[in-house]
# Entry
Amino acid sequence: MNPAMTVVVLALIWAAITGTFSGLNLLLGGAIGILAVLLLRRSLGPPRRFRQLRNIASLTVLFLYELGASAVRVAIVVLTPDLKSALQPAIIAFPLTVKSDAEITLLANLITLTPGTLSVDVSEDRSLLYVHALAFGTREGLIADIAGGFEAKVREVYS
# Structure
């Protein structure tokens, strides 16, 4: 049985034992299941799967953080009385270090789903991703943010 299914089964067992199938109780059972799986990981399966699950969870947490932070930044830009000074749209060419179709697609979707940025196109040779930013600071700053954030996490997930 894979670790995710083990956690689900342990959460359901927890809910059955406690007699409460509420959402919070299932979450508590899931947390206890995750702890049990982590403690027993050597006997349950190869450590590579757990590292990959940890990398996926890390990417998810980063995405949720960036989603919230960028939503606040876009709201501030929109609510600024002098909108023309707050808006500094630009399109930059982001140099890609990820190469597979899946990696490029995931990175482009993460950028597009984050408010204030939009993936526009990928170059023919797949070396550049064109990104539109609503409130543009500096080219180097935006490239560093994407490379150190989403792109690094996508590489970890696919390594």
Notes: The mean pLDDT is 88.
